[in-house]
Amino acid sequence: MKKLFTTLLLTLVVTLTTYAQSLYYRAHLFTLGERINDKVEFNTTMETNVLLEFNDSDIKIYSESPQHYHTIGLLLEEEGTNVWMCKDDNGINCRIYLNTRPESSAIALTVEYNDYVWIYICDKE
Fold it and tell me: CA-to-CA distance for 113 and 36, rounded, in angstroms?
């Protein structure tokens, strides 16, 4: 009985620790760009209300079509910018950039594929 209780307690602690490591942001602007001849042309910007979730292994965007990215590795970590190599649910590689400004709680999350780029401007939840 003691072993069962210890196992259940350990499972609960691990579960709560995993949830505590997630960060949530609310996007209020969305911008879409298309890569043409190595330049990105941004032609669509709109207001949005989308929840973003980050944890150690995943980035989720709860948009009308939910997006789920599995982080493969951290490519760059410097003040105000993190870049990850990711794989989406279709197995396609992309890069995700997270840019922050120390003077505000706003962030920019950029998802970059070979042909398209989209950016969410967010506030911390």
Answer: 12
